[in-house]
Amino acid sequence: AQSVAQPEDQVNVAEGNPLTVKCTYSVSGNPYLFWYVQYPNRGLQFLLKYITGDNLVKGSYGFEAEFNKSQTSFHLKKPSALVSDSALYFCAVRDEDFNKFYFGSGTKLNVKP
Amino acid sequence: EAGVTQFPSHSVIEKGQTVTLRCDPISGHDNLYWYRRVMGKEIKFLLHFVKESKQDESGMPNNRFLAERTGGTYSTLKVQPAELEDSGVYFCASSHHRRGLMNTEAFFGQGTRLTVV
Q: Which alpha helices (DSSP H) does chain B contain, by range?
């Protein structure tokens, strides 16, 4: 069965510092991994995805994620956080057979000035 | 291009009442999904349409929930009668439907926040 775990409910980081939001996954087939962000009163916005190829994936707003097959992880990273990055971040895996997404519980990112 | 739109954005109803949520997917997207997030929990799959057909409704909590997608366009999700535990944010998403095209992301609406009191 497919599942995603986001072990941190909240991540606090100072503006300008690097940030990491953690995600681990469990899939029975090939991992198709996604990160979405939800700003207050907004819908989920696509950030980036891993399908195949390079383990380091670059996405919107300067975010990137590193796929690690041996650790079954897909952590979201950004070298220098902005206050405007404060939002709720969701990791997701797409089921190859049934074409649906499985989401983690979300991580609230707080970037303080 | 218009995104996925959902209506209403908020709904507060009493236990036992009926509520209907609506989702208009991106034009041309055959896949339409409903998801729900209960406070602080993960976003859970409810069901999946391909055009007007229900592809997978394994996530529907019980028979108080009824989803339809008339003519393969917009979709409605009706809760009747609503219970307290139905409170949460209901998201709709759409994507292209092409077999084997697993790299397609889904586009989400802003969600409907349902509060049952």
A: none
| B65 to B58, B72, B83: CA distances (angstroms) | 12, 19, 11
**Is A96 within 8 Å of B102 when comparing Cβ atoms?**
yes
- Give residue-wise pLDDT tens across range B15-72: 999 999 999 999 989 899 999 999 878 899 999 999 999 988 999 999 999 999 988 8
Contact between chains at B33 and A43 (C-beta distance less than 8 A): no
Distance between CA atoms of residues A35 and A44, nearest Å = 10
Distance from CA of A31 to the nearest CA of B (A): 10
The angle subtended at Cα B114 by Cα B6 and Cα B80, nearest 5°, is 95
| Beta bridge partner(s), residue B77 | B21, B67
Count the neighbouring beta carbons within 10 Å of the beta carbon of residue A36: 26
- DSSP assignment letter at B104: P
